[in-house]
Design brief:
Layout (H helix, E strand, L loop, with lengths): L7 E6 L5 H17 L3 E4 L6 H10 L1 E4 L10 E4 L6 H9 L3 E4 L3 H15 L3 E5 L5 H7 L6 E4 L16 E5 L5 H14 L13 H14 L4 E5 L5 H12 L5 E4 L16 E6 L5 H12 L5 E6 L11 H15 L2
Parallel strand pairs: 1-11, 1-12, 2-3, 2-4, 4-5, 6-7, 6-8, 9-10, 9-11
Helix pairs in contact: 1-10, 4-5, 7-8
The structure holds ligand 10G and iron/sulfur cluster.
Length: 327
């Protein structure tokens, strides 16, 4: 018989909402208050089931494409970013747009535009079909080639080996991306690196926290949705860091009792950048109900970054405040 006091939870910090997600979710809420329901949102505003369901209840309508939005309506673009053709299509259909693209994704879009103008071949490391990759590729489709991980490197062809740059999706595994870059450099020694990290601070910090807890954890529970790239990466990073098992769950109710074998003494808990804290709290309650009441914080970084709301929304909120002030 083992003592229950030996059971503990390692809780990763930072975890959950990043600045870009916080801004995007607040933008939908503020838009609903300012303009009234419905507010159309192209693509899930962030890749989280609970967030999407909650905003739907408040009056957001999520669509795959802008052609599903009635003319004259308001459409918001998700935090993952969109290709310029999506802006053009919205303009053609006379839609009012609010762009909730994270500023750190916009930064990568601008890099793509600049390198394309200088006629570089751009090797974009990212996951095929992911919304962010589709948006970034759309900035310079004739110059960008997708590289989907280290195994994809041998398939890459370029026009001029002396003029090649790599960029990346913001939510990738840092270690796997460096492996991809090393292999690309072997093939293209003149490969140019992006001016600053494309994998964002939030992705890096969440992975670093999981690495700190991974070796000690018998089980890691990552809260996040199946279509959330950064959340999925946390499961892989946990396993890579030595965790004996790691699973992704949307809700505490998805945790399988069978994961908590007698050998499991230390459970790591973290959450992806699109995950509200309430979902982590429910997981901690679930664990506490099974003897895991001792919670230790494993801290990899402090985060204080915030982004202001999308400019179209700020403009209308300011005008509304001025109207109210004028009586
Ligand atoms: O991790 P991905 O890119 O799938 O998105 P997410 O919505 O789960 O998390 C927030 C990250 C973004 C909005 C992409 S920059
Ligand atoms: Fe922005 Fe990074 Fe969050 Fe994506 S994961 S929304 S790039 S802060």
């Amino acid at each position: 018989m083992t003592s229950t006091t030996a059971r503990r939870v390692l809780l990763a910090a930072p975890r959950g909402y990043c600045a870009g997600v916080d801004r995007a979710v607040i933008a939908v809420e503020k838009a609903l208050e300012q303009y009234g329901a419905p507010i159309y949102v192209r693509h899930e505003i962030v890749h989280n089931k609970y967030v999407v369901q909650t905003l739907e209840k408040k009056g957001a309508i999520f669509v795959d494409e802008t052609d599903e939005v009635p003319e004259g309506s308001i459409v918001m673009f998700s935090a993952h970013g969109v290709a310029p053709t999506v802006h053009e299509e919205a303009e053609r259909r006379k839609l009012a747009t609010i762009d909730a693209t994270c500023p750190l994704v916009t930064k990568v879009h601008k890099e793509a535009v600049r390198f394309a103008k200088e006629d570089y071949d751009i090797l974009l490391i990212g996951h095929e079909g992911h919304e962010e990759v589709i948006g970034t590729s759309g900035e310079a489709p004739d110059h960008i080639t997708l590289v989907d991980g280290p195994e994809d490197v041998d398939n890459v062809t370029v026009r001029d080996e002396s003029k090649v740059v790599w960029l990346s999706q913001t939510t990738l595994s840092v270690d796997e991306t460096m492996e991809t870059v090393d292999r690309l450099k072997q093939r293209f020694p003149a490969l140019v690196s992006p001016p600053s990290d494309d994998i964002c601070y939030a992705t890096q910090n969440r992975q670093n926290a999981v690495k700190l807890m991974g070796a000690e954890a018998d089980l890691v529970i990552v809260v996040g949705s199946q279509n959330s790239s950064n959340s999925k990466r946390l499961v892989e990073v946990a396993l890579g860091a030595g965790a004996k098992a790691a699973y992704l769950v949307d809700f505490a109710s998805e945790i399988d009792e069978a994961w908590l074998t007698d050998e499991v003494r230390t459970v790591g808990v973290t959450s992806g950048a699109s995950v509200p804290e309430v979902l982590v709290e429910e997981v901690l309650e679930w664990l506490a109900g099974r003897g895991f009441t001792d919670v230790e914080l494993v801290k990899a970084a402090e985060e204080s970054i915030t982004f202001s709301l999308p400019k179209e929304l700020r403009r209308d909120l300011r005008a509304e405040a001025a109207r109210k002030a004028a009586g």
